[in-house]
What does this fold into?
Amino acid sequence: MLEARLEQAQLLKKVVDAIKDLVQDCNFDCNDSGIALQAMDNSHVALVSMMLKAESFNPFRCDRNIAIGLNLVSLTKVLRAAQNEDILTLKAEDAPDSLNLTFESSDKDRISEYDLKLMDIDQEHLGIPDTDYSATISMPSAEFKRICTDLMAMSESVTIEAGKDGIKFACNGDIGNGSITLRTVQDVENKENNIEIALTEPVSLTFSLKYLVNFCKAQNLSKTVKLHISNEVPLLVEYAMEGGSYLRFYLAPKIGD
Amino acid sequence: QVPQIILEQYYKSG
It folds into this structure.
């Protein structure tokens, strides 16, 4: 059986909030290393890969592989009843037809308990190989969100160009064009403000801004975001959380002429 | 308008 206790419900609330507009029905695949999810959006252009490591829970118990088939709209309805600071416990049997959730207020004067019906989801799984990306950019997640939102006002796609001079986000729209270039920033006092660019070769790829803006809903999970880019493969946008947990988004590029 | 590639063109199913 699964028993997983989160010190603060907000972790799960934020994760589900960040992905629920991209994927609806998906399996939480549980085993002794944690809770994983991989799901593509309907158009097969974007993919969500979540890993909540056992270390992010206290305690975490799961002695065999359990697939928890969830509708994220339904899960959101239940999670809305949890306060951010509540202690959240997930429980499920080995072959579950429901997921038990309890929310306990931190001063323990209120315990809410919900059982959510599960679904049988036959999910398509993609094998994503470990990749050495040509460019890895680490930046404040708020900055990435601002760039995507600003450019989306002008165009539906953005070209991300990483070179030795920095990283450039450029768009071309009906009303004109625009670009934002970022250079390396080293803020010793506040490392969250750093912009780091690791480059093995220059890259330039075009992506749909609609999806990137959607990924930015994960901004609350982490103060920094990492973009991994190579000319030959989809973009990887990664939000790292405590305990080695992460939320990753993969986005297939658009191909120019 | 530039064509949108899908993920299966890069990653295998299964």
